[in-house]
Design goal:
The structure holds 2 protein chains of 2 kinds. Chain A has 4 helices and no strands. Chain A has helices at 3-14, 20-32, 34-51, 60-77. The two termini of chain B are 36 Å apart. Classes of the chains: A mainly alpha, B mainly alpha.
């Protein structure tokens, strides 16, 4: 397996979508290829960073304005 | 907080929806409380800025409130509100199309090879080297380098945890297209973040 092919399979590997054989071949490549291992590692880390629950938190004032807008809408309806 | 089993939550949600449809506002408010954080995050991920994310949040829930009588209870409220919010977010971007900042054409990303230029290892725990606000700015900047179709797939699959099939259905794409976009989105984001987080990069 060359690096081009390995990089293409990393996404599917992270999702557990590879066949057993492909998975084994990729894992073998990742063991000895520092470059592809770094790509694998940092791709995984990229996903983790965006999944961090502390990211893009709803600010209190935005929440307040949402609930005020909904209440105004409710009053229009009644 | 203990996690409720999925089935209990769904039943409970169905009850809230029925109550809300019957005109019980506090039941609707409870649904809003449950999903407002997710929908704001969705807006931030797809539109790439706070003002638009707030509009998406408000418009999505106002529309949900207005169209609640049309909501068929055979699907989850959560899926419904996500669909409304995704539409609002993409519409927002389309309106902004006049400005050069948003490439709407996803085809350019669909063609061509994914080029990986950054092969360096990252520093350990990059998130700990930046203040929260700075980290948000960095992550937001990277997301903004993706075209909307790719951001949306990345958000739904990787952040929101929807399956390939759910994402495909929501966006009217084939499962294959979802996988291809996800692959590209992940590598593109990684590439952008590597410029900042790699060993020897600036901090």
């Amino acid at each position: 397996m060359n690096c081009n092919k390995a990089v293409k399979e990393i996404s599917g590997y992270l999702d557990g979508e590879l066949t057993e054989e492909l998975k084994r071949t990729l894992e073998a490549h990742l063991t000895y290829c520092n470059h592809c291992h770094a790509v694998y590692d940092s791709t995984k880390k990229t996903i983790e960073l965006y999944c961090d629950g502390q990211l893009f938190l709803l600010p209190d004032e935005v929440r307040t304005r949402l609930h005020e807008a909904l209440k105004r809408k409710l009053q229009e309806h009644t | 907080m203990t996690e409720l089993p999925q089935a209990t939550l769904a039943r409970d949600e169905g009850h809230l929806v029925s109550e809300a449809k019957a005109g019980n506002y506090s039941a609707f408010e409870e649904l809003v409380n449950r999903y407002e954080k997710k929908i704001y995050r969705l807006g931030m991920n797809i539109t790439g800025n706070r003002e638009d994310a707030e509009d998406v949040l408000q418009d999505a829930f106002l529309k949900a409130f207005e169209h609640l009588p049309d909501f068929r209870e055979d699907s989850r409220f959560y899926t419904w509100i996500v669909r409304i919010a995704v539409n609002e977010a993409l519409m927002k971007l389309r309106k902004r199309r006049t400005s050069r900042e948003v490439p709407m054409d996803d085809s350019e990303d669909d063609n061509g090879e994914v080029v990986v230029r950054e092969f360096a290892d990252w520093k350990p725990n990059p998130e700990q080297q930046f203040a929260q606000a700075e980290l948000e700015r960095i992550l937001q900047g990277a997301v903004n380098s993706l075209s909307p179709g790719f951001r949306t797939v990345f958000y739904l699959r990787d952040v929101e945890g929807l399956s390939t099939e759910e994402t495909a259905e929501l966006l009217n794409l084939t499962a294959g297209a979802v996988k291809a976009r996800l692959f590209r989105a992940r590598l593109r984001l990684r590439e952008e973040l590597s410029k900042i987080f790699k060993r020897g990069g600036y901090s």
